[in-house]
Amino acid sequence: MVLVGLNLRPALSSLAPLLVRVQADTGLTPLAIGALTTLPVLCLGIFAPLAPWLAKRAGPENTLALALGILIAGLLLRGLPALPLLFLGTLLAGAAIGIAGTLLPALVKRELPGGADLMTGVYTMALCLGGALGAGLSIPLADLLGGWRFSLMSWGLLALLALVAWLTLMPRAPHSQVATATGGSMRELLGQPLAWQVMILMGSQSSLAYIVFGWLPTLLQARGYSEAEAGWMMGASVMVQLISALGAPWLARLSRDQRPALLLVLGCIAAGLWLLLQAGENWRWPGVVLLGLGQGGSFSLALSLIVLRTANSRLAGKLSGLAQGGGYTLAAMGPLAVGVLLQLEVGMSTMTGVLLSIVAVAAGFALLAGRNRRLDVDAEGRLVTR
């Protein structure tokens, strides 16, 4: 699971530092580049709800193996010369990550029900490490391998390693163990306010994450930083996420619910964005650290809520599909909006205000989703919130 998590971000973070080269080589407009950064996030939202359906028919283990195979194909395709293949490969990679990322919380809930929140922190840490490697190594790999296309394709090797490891070591629970649980349909889930609160929290905090993955280097370059320095600053910020991704679930256990921890990490995001986009150059590294601590913690806690707000692995899978499907669909609007704002040549103050507004939305829903409540099925088979 940790090795799979390591592959769920390089496909996204490895593209951002290379956007200037991609644009120069392909002639894509800022709006088209914005669509390219939005496409994988939109695919996360569109394909995430398919994960429970596929898992019910093929088993979650086989479905995850299929997702890794699609990820490999997408990573290889987007490095080929034809421009449409760049978009097709990005689409496939986003679809694969959407399916794999949705399956992991349910697998964690099934295999480690007592420590699901802490294990979520562990594989989220691996996910953040993958994001950091993708951001930090993209430019060096492009220089070493002779171009941005080979840099993008090279991440297929890491995905191949994960596929081989998963096929060798994956848990092999009987299919009936997963299929026999009843109660709690998707229609019932849509009628629960708690499910919507978790979904919108996931979407708003993920929107900030994918804006950082897609546009932070470009925004930093607009402030005068070099291409390489902007890439390393984003890579360092993602690397710092390792600390809070693992530590935030432990921190949340100190309180009766997750609201204080969520507000703390969202406050770090707001402070980090303001320092990077508005403060002087001397404040860039505190901004990098605060942004990383906030984003690693907020994503880890948002994923933890999926397992903490459900009574069993089946409901966790359903909520994961809804929260990540709907959440990532909302999140896709963030990178696209930044692309539109850059096309309109708005000032950095306006850009900062838009990003801080998204943080405020996330904080509002954190106060709701962070309460100590849980979705369960009652004795009559109806979905209820306890």
Sequence-ordered SSE layout with sheet pairings:
Layout: H1 2-6, H2 10-13, H3 19-26, H4 30-47, H5 50-58, H6 60-77, H7 83-111, H8 116-145, H9 148-153, H10 155-169, H11 175-179, H12 186-190, H13 193-222, H14 227-252, H15 259-277, H16 284-308, H17 313-331, H18 333-343, H19 348-369, E1 375-377, E2 383-385
Antiparallel strand pairs: 1-2
Domain Major facilitator superfamily (MFS) profile: 1-374
InterPro entries: MFS, MFS_Cyanate_Porter, MFS_dom, MFS_trans_sf
Protein name: MFS transporter
Describe the protein:
This protein is mostly helical and 386 residues long. It contains 19 helices and 2 strands. The chain has helices at 2-6, 10-13, 19-26, 30-47, 50-58, 60-77, 83-111, 116-145, 148-153, 155-169, 175-179, 186-190, 193-222, 227-252, 259-277, 284-308, 313-331, 333-343, 348-369; strands at 375-377, 383-385. Strand 1 and strand 2 form a beta hairpin. It starts with a helix and ends with a strand.
Give keywords.
single chain, 386 residues, two-stranded antiparallel sheet, 2 strands, 79% helix, transmembrane helix, MFS_trans_sf, MFS transporter, transmembrane, membrane
Through-space gap between termini:
30 Å
Q: Taking strands numbered 1, 2, ... along the chain, how are they ordered across the largest sheet?
A: 1-2
The fraction of residues assigned to DSSP E strands is under 5%
E-strand count: 2
Helix content percent band? over 70%
* Mean of all residue-level pLDDT scores: 86
Overall radius of gyration? 20 Å
Low-confidence stretches: 175-181
Order of helices and strands: HHHHHHHHHHHHHHHHHHHEE
Morphology call: globular
SS content category:
mainly alpha
Sheet having the most strands: 2 strands, antiparallel
Q: How many helices?
A: 19
Pfam families: MFS_1
Domain Major facilitator superfamily (MFS) profile: 1-374
Protein name: MFS transporter
Keywords: Membrane, Transmembrane, Transmembrane helix
